[in-house]
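Regression test case RT-17, inverse folding.

Input:
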């Protein structure tokens, strides 16, 4: 069986002394020793030194196959030539003009040509910012204040939506009417009041809740959880038809789910939202958030109009590197690239099911496009509550075994595939997993 947590943590500490001492150093100047909470993982974070293609090397010179892909952003892998060349060229021209450049229309046109629901776009610095600005737009255009979101969905770290992202199970209330639970201390007192929480995969409860709150609701935020929860396209279509029926705006959060296909999850599922937020991949590795959607809605941001009431700003929004790297990334992401990623993902999905079956460990694998999640459970995982019941202890120990064997990124948002990966990488990973589980 997989070795004990204590043994694995000691072994990882032994083979990564430079990461250990970096973390000890960091504790003097940063809370918990890390620059952001997501980087904390016991026994200490693994500090990276460099990356190339689908590999990263840590401060101790150990090599990892990278399944983390910078929180799913690096779909082309690390240092792809097209992006490095484009950004290097931009660097030579100077950066940060405080004035618009022609790059803006270029990337806007690229996105619009790719996704039929997008007629106009704006840039921000992160997915968080994009979802915050969209929330204001929804309220402004409808004159209604509440926003509905799904239990277990995360749309960024701001008071308007960081509600019921991962609530304790003893606080969630009944599935037919989930409670609204602020995710952090210190949030505004009205955060919980202003968010209506709806369950994934229960169309009847979703519709009932939306109908009940219809007069106060501006619209619905929908993260399709592609490759994360097992949600049929039909559910996404029912979210669209109910929101249309009730005259509620539908915002699709494609910050992760753009990994689903060439034009993102909305095209794979055949759902046309009113507005969409993007992030991650769209910055080609640089900080980014994108808001796009129907022109009549997006025009609310038009500050050339005297009637304009809705500002959308940010010193570094749409900075030259983000636009350059984002544009080059989108141009590289052809249908053939998605075909390759789908092939890898199917092999990984099937292989993991076989390896876990052979080891007689129950598993549920969910995958879509270039994203895959494995849960240790004999149940299907359709939503946050089902996800909360899976075996995390064994899962985490497998993660430590994988780190020791040179694989990074087990956990978090799941296994992110990248273009430089080949079927041989998947085969080697599956062989490693097989020997970990049968050890
Ligand atoms: C689905 C989803 N929406 C929004 C966000 C927030 O994006 P950012 O971290 O760029 O603020 C994330 C971040 O992981 C996300 O996964």
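Golden output:
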């Amino acid at each position: 069986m997989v070795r004990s947590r204590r043994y694995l943590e000691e072994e990882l500490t032994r083979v990564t002394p430079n990461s250990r001492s970096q973390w000890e150093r960091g504790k003097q100047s940063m809370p918990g020793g890390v620059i952001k909470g997501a980087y904390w993982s016991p026994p200490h974070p693994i500090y990276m030194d460099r990356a190339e293609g689908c590999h990263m090397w840590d401060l101790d010179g150990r090599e990892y196959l990278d399944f983390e892909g910078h929180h799913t952003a690096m779909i082309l892998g690390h240092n792809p030539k097209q992006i490095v060349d484009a950004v290097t060229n931009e660097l030579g021209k100077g950066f940060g003009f405080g004035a618009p450049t022609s790059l803006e229309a270029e990337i806007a046109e690229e996105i619009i040509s790719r996704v039929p629901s997008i007629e106009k776009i704006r840039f921000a610095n992160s997915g968080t910012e994009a979802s915050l600005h969209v929330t204001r737009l929804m309220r402004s255009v409808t004159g209604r204040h509440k926003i509905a979101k799904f239990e277990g969905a995360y749309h960024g770290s701001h008071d308007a939506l960081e509600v019921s992202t991962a609530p304790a199970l003893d606080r969630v209330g009944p599935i037919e009417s989930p409670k609204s639970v602020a995710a952090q201390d210190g949030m505004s007192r009205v955060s919980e009041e202003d968010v209506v929480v709806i369950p994934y995969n229960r169309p009847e409860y979703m519709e009932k809740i939306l109908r009940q709150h219809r007069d106060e609701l501006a619209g619905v935020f929908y993260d399709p959880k592609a490759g994360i929860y097992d949600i049929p396209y039909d559910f996404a279509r029912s979210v669209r038809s109910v929101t249309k029926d009730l005259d509620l705006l539908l915002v699709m959060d494609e910050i992760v789910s753009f990994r689903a296909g060439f034009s993102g999850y909305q095209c794979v599922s055949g759902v046309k939202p009113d507005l969409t937020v993007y992030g991650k991949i769209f910055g080609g590795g640089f900080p980014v958030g994108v808001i796009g959607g129907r022109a009549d809605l997006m025009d609310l941001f038009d500050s050339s109009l005297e009637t304009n009431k809705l500002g959308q700003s940010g010193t570094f929004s749409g900075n030259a590197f983000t636009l350059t790297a984002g544009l080059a990334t989108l141009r590289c992401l052809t249908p053939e690239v998605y075909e390759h990623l789908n092939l890898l993902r199917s092999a990984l999905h099937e292989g993991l099911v076989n390896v876990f079956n052979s080891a007689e460990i129950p598993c549920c694998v969910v995958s879509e496009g270039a994203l895959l999640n494995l849960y240790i459970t004999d149940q299907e995982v359709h939503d946050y509550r089902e996800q909360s019941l899976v075996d995390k202890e064994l899962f985490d120990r497998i993660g430590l075994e994988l780190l020791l064997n040179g694989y990074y990124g087990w956990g978090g948002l799941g296994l992110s595939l990248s273009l430089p990966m080949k079927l041989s990488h998947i085969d080697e990973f599956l062989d490693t997993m097989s020997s970990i589980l049968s050890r």
